[in-house]
Amino acid sequence: MLLWNRCATGVGFVTLCVSMLLTAACGGGNSGNGSGPPPPPPPPASFTVSVSPGSITLTQGAAGQPLQVSLIAKNGFTGAATVTVVGLPSGVTVTPSSLSVTATSPGSFTLTASGSASISQGPVAVNAVSGALTADNSVQLTVSGTAPPDPFHLVGGTMTHGFYDENRQLLFTPNLGLNELDVISSVDFSVQARVPLPQPFGIDQMADGKTLVIGTIAQELLTVDENTFAVTRHPFSAAGSGGFSLFFPNVVALANGKVIVIGQEPGIDSSDIIDGGQYLYEWDSKANTFTQLEPTGSNPWETDSLARSADHKWAIFSGDQFYLYSSDSNSLKSAPLSTVDPPDDSFGVRGYAINSNGSEIAVVSASQVTFLNSSLVALGSTPIPNAFQNARTAVQFSTDDSKLYIQFDGPLAIEEIDTTTYAVLGSRSAETIPGSNLDRLLATDSQGHAYLGTGGGIRFVDLTQPPVPNNSSGIQIPNCPTLGIALPLNTSMQLTLATAYSGTLLSVYVGAQAAPLLNGATILSIPASSTVGPADVQCVGTSGDTVAYADAVSYGVQPIGFSANLLPPTGNPPAYLFGFGLSAQAFEVPSIDFGGQPATNVAELEPDQDGVPQAAAMQVPNGNPGDAPVISVSSSAGSGTLSGATSYYASPTIVPATGLLQLLYDTHRNVVYALKPTEVDVLDPVTLQWQSPISFPATATGTFGMMALSPDGSKLVVEGLTPNNIPEAIVFDPDRISPPAVASSPTEAQVTGSIVITASNKVIFAGSPAIELDLASLTFTPLSVNTGALLRSTPDGNHIFGADLNVSSGEVYSVDPVTFAVQTEFFGQIFWADLTVSPDGSQFAPIDIVPFAAGDIVGFFDPGLRYLNTNVYPAFSPPDDAGAIGSAYSPQGKVVVVPLGDSIEFWDAENGTLRARLMTPEELKVIMYPEGAAPPIMALDPTGQMIYAISNSGVTVLKLPQPIDQMTPAQWPQTRVHNSDQAKFHGSITSREAALRRKSK
Fold first, then answer.
1. CA spacing 20 to 30 A to 671: which of 147, 361, 619, 703?
2. Domain with 548 in it: what CATH number?
3. pLDDT cut 70: percent of the chain above it
4. Same-domain status, 128 and 236
5. Domain that holds residue 538
6. Is residue 9 part of a domain?
7. How many whole angstroms separate alpha carbon 443 and alpha carbon 173?
8. Edge-to-edge, what's the strand order for the sheet holding 314-318?
């Protein structure tokens, strides 16, 4: 025993004692009795920990579940161990916080999930400690329950930026898709107000804490009082180096009352990064002055975003260098881009943010984040998991400055980085199906909540939940099965999935009801519902992060929108019905009727993406004038009705005629002139009978295509070109007392065919250059001005505006009616094919129409050629036919009336929103590819209640239910809208422009 004890005291005692035995050391060695070496020492005492059961499922808000813990003693262990449970998900508690357990006395914990516990699945560690001895085990914990609060909240349109007001608990977000500012409660996500604004884009709050400043895709800034929602416009015009007039999309407000504004050349916006621009301006809100801030030299400049500190004292932006602005000193300091994006700024600075007091700056490039101090000295860099693209992404500090949030868009997620250690913490999913091409982190609040604009709504993300660690592939989000299912009411479905959804997907909820994954996650059990309409789907991952799938399952039949609110009693025009459950089976065609009259040629239309409302095309039945039919729909999913969406207007009349080129209403005589190649026909608007025509004199040799009436009504002028390309005019006395006269220009001129007559009875022939015809002397005079291809004037001839057909310039003009001096502005990739002027000249609207492409773009301008607004289509009234020429303002100037091939659109002249869509009984004469300006095919009477339009078989005469200015705007329902064409003035050549260019080659 003495030998063993001595040997056991040494280091490596087994090897030492074996050596001693072989050398007969350590007290004489073996006594020689032949019994062999002594037995090895017994192992030290220890223990293991056992848990029962090995897996636990907790339900949110339900009673807790026990977890029994036992010690299994080894080698005579008789002590006690302290046992704890660690790594619990958010909202899960354990009682007691620790246990003292022995081998003969096990203990029991109770695990409980609160009503808001994170739905999750994963191992939870059970640790036991006794002195220096430890033992670990784990239990598989699943937290289930009802779906978390719906993370997606429909607003409609397209949110671009946001400001969260902590004091008011309101999110203010410009909605470019609806021409409005949306005010949204952060308590229940309800829309508190929709404030009409023209093309709003960027937003910030002034330092006074009560005034919002908003940048626009137009030539003005807007300020909005947060208490009254009163709007003040601050117009400003400036031209870029390329000649295009600037827009001002983004803003940051500083403590000194200055607002830094991005100036953007339309059409030159960095491949659809519609935040960015080539200039920076400083608006002094106190003096109301605009001053160019950058560039100060000739170096190329491009900045794609602006950021400021929470105290309004610091702002940052990137251009030829990286800049830090101080509002205290109203000054800039800068550092090379390679300094803020080391080592060599390979892929460019793509995003940035500054913390609350300006002491830390984060600069994001394609693959890393670099943190800087206020001296623009780099503190450290860390790689990011996915490539960062600045076209649709955002960077923000948390309100307590402890984290940096980076929004990625593929998948839509928010990455979190520790701003002290620069450690990448992981991400939370913000993925929403279907998304949009302007997915954006709008704002975060002091409670750790994030608000994103995506897919026509607000996506909510709770950033107080632990972030999900990235893996080798970067950001991970839950898988979510492709749906788009329509079911009858009170009917469930077992949906076989194309693949097994396991791994990151834990559970699925349909309309807050659990949808279990069965048979190895190859079957999704969709629950039944007694509530008609769509239900959002939430796919919850094992870490509790969520993918929101909006409107992915619907129950029953719910029609929600109809494309036209005014229908002719005859003619059976095309139209579209939108809703849910219109087709519950493949290739199903629903049955649709209007007040009992069946629609014909009904066809299901495939949605652009799963989960959006379905649509059906049809020809509407005939009806009775004044009727407001209930639209009834039935399919295998059930039946539903839609009321108040449309009505039949008074019976139209089609006056037979052929060869018509242009219509013009003579308010002096109350007749309608219809231009033909060799005469002017005269229509009595009361009897709708043709009167004797006004024939062209034999001395007229030209080809005539446009006419205009002098403001005093004394002269009707028809314009044309001779075979030798000489401008020619026929001047008629509309009362037919004096014979017509023919006047020819002495020389050839490059005129376009568009004419206007001034108050002094001078006819301007649009051209490059233009020419003038004096109606008193019938003499032509060349003008040394370019008026563009289109000219229109007010009825009194005192306000004249023009626009150009050149798709590469988008020019608009103002022409002085006395001196003929011309002012010009350029607006990029626009094909102005039509133009109309308000009766008082306070506004004019060129119309972008491209042959063979549906719809139009209306630009609204003031007399100073400032671009004010553009039109935005509602989701449920899309155009489906090419444009026609002849747009007109209503008598009071409140509405712009735009004809298409199968319909007439009524656009609100102040808000750019669609007031009504009237379907015509037969096709109107649409635009072709003109050599010059095309003549107007539509005319309004002076009351604004009668519309005359050239159609396939003559003149269609329409009587509206009330005058245009008094029409009640249609209430188009809000829903998702695909916004690929929302930024009308931006990006690469649009499909319509590309079609035009292909045709012109």
1. 703
2. 2.60.40
3. 91
4. no
5. 485-555
6. no
7. 9
8. 307-308, 314-318, 322-326, 331-335
